[in-house]
Structures are given as structure tokens and as C-alpha cells.
């Protein structure tokens, strides 16, 4: 599924949203996207999900990418654990690896915030940091297209509506600051609920 097959929100909805000619909403399997980079909502161990047939995005991406991706993540963690045996990847940063068997060139891994009893401002900022660090990693690599999953809104229980608001606000703010950085940013959703949230925000 290439960019030519995915309309922008301006083309699809007649949207006048900021950067509507460079932003898309696409509902489906993120591992099918032929873009420069897709974003993986990783866990702090950075080794993929080890629960067989688990429905998380981390498992879906690692399963489709093949063993090379897990090995690359393992090497990354081994390098850091030589200095700190208890190292876990911090929330809000990003790690770029090749896409291996995926149609995308790269996977950008980020550990999103885990929401417990209530959503605090610190957790909102952590999610903003995830989006900014992924965008910066892609832009610094010269990548022109990136597809985001709905970071933290699944297994990590970030409220879907607030997650979508932060995603749209952070992405549009980044593009405004670094004009010309991307040809396309795709908000990839799986659930109808998330599609409706992004459509309401961007149409």
C-alpha cells in the first residue's frame, strides 16, 4: 500500500485543516504500508512482544518484519546494558532500525506512557515527546513519509480521544516548525473509534 493509494485529508474530506495536503488517515494494517518509516509502540525492554498471537502493535510489527528486527533491537539493548545491566528504554525517546521484511524502509520504536489510575499532565507530555522524537528521528534521517500507530492507546491505556488530540497537535506543530520536513504523515488507525476521532479532528 503506497502513498498514491492513500488520499490526504484534503483529498478525502475536503479538509481545510493545517497541512491537510500532507496528512492522511488510514485504517488498516500498518505493516502493509510502503512508506519511509512506520512507528512501533514498543515496551521498555525493546525486544518485541513475546506473547504468542498477542494483539498489540509491537507483536504485529515484529511478526511481519521477521527475526532481523528482534535481533537489531537485541543488539541495541545489549550495547546499553554493557554500561547498565538494568537498562530499560526511557519513555518518550525513539530508536530507528531497518524495516527488514516490511515494505517500509525503517521502523521507529518509541516507548509510550502507561496510564494507571488517572491521566496526569506528565503523561500527556510524555506522549508529546514520543511524537516529537519520532518526527525528529525521521526528519534527521531525511525521510519523507512516516506512519504513526495510536501510541499508548491500546495496552498502555492512554485515553483514545486525548491521544488523538495530542498526536494531531504535535504533528502539525512540528511540521510548522520544520516546514518542508515531510511529504506525508499518516495517522494509521485500526479501530472505528480511532478513525472517527481523527476524522473529527482533521476534517
Chart the SSEs and their pairings.
Blueprint (H helix, E strand, L loop, with lengths): L8 H5 L9 E5 L9 E6 L14 H9 L1 H15 L12 E5 L7 E6 L9 H20 L4 E4 L11 H18 L6 E6 L2 H11 L1
Parallel strand pairs: 1-6, 2-4, 2-5, 5-6
Antiparallel strand pairs: 3-4
Helix pairs in contact: 4-5, 5-6
Overview of the structural elements:
With 203 residues, the chain is α/β, with parallel strands linked by helices. The chain has six helices and six strands, in the order αββααββαβαβα. Strands 1-6-5-2-4-3 form a six-stranded mixed β-sheet, sandwiched between helices. The chain starts with 8 loop residues before the first helix and ends with a helix.
Which descriptors would you attach to this protein?
203 residues, alpha/beta, 6 helices
Q: Could you tell me the mean pLDDT?
A: 95
- Side by side, the strands of the main sheet go 1-6-5-2-4-3
pLDDT < 50 stretches: none
Reported for the largest beta sheet, the result is: 6 strands, mixed
Radius of gyration, CA atoms, in whole angstroms:
16 Å
Judging from the principal axes of the Cα atoms, what is the shape? globular
**H and E order:** HEEHHEEHEHEH
> Separation of termini?
23 Å
What would you call the structural class? alpha/beta
Amino acid at each position: 500500500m503506497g502513498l498514491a493509494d492513500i488520499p490526504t485529508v484534503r483529498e478525502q474530506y475536503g479538509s481545510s485543516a493545517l497541512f491537510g495536503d500532507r496528512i492522511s488517515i488510514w485504517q488498516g494494517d500498518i505493516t502493509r504500508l510502503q512508506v519511509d518509516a512506520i512507528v512501533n509502540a514498543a515496551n521498555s525492554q525493546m525486544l518485541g512482544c513475546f506473547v504468542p498471537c498477542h494483539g498489540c502493535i509491537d507483536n504485529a510489527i515484529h511478526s511481519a518484519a521477521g527475526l532481523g528486527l528482534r535481533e537489531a533491537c537485541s543488539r541495541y539493548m545489549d550495547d546499553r546494558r554493557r554500561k547498565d545491566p538494568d537498562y530499560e528504554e526511557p519513555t518518550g525517546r525513539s530508536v530507528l532500525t531497518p524495516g527488514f521484511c516490511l515494505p517500509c524502509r525503517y521502523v521507529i520504536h518509541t516507548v509510550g506512557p502507561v496510564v494507571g489510575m488517572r491521566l496526569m499532565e506528565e503523561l500527556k507530555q510524555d506522549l508529546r515527546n514520543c511524537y516529537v522524537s519520532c518526527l525528529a528521528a525521521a526528519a534527521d534521517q531525511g525521510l519523507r513519509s512516516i506512519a504513526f500507530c495510536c501510541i499508548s492507546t491500546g495496552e498502555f491505556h492512554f485515553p483514545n480521544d486525548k491521544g488523538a488530540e495530542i498526536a494531531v497537535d504535535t504533528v502539525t506543530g512540528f511540521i510548522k516548525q520544520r516546514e518542508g520536513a515531510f511529504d506525508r504523515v499518516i495517522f494509521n488507525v485500526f479501530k472505528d473509534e480511532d478513525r472517527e476521532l481523527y476524522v473529527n479532528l482533521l476534517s
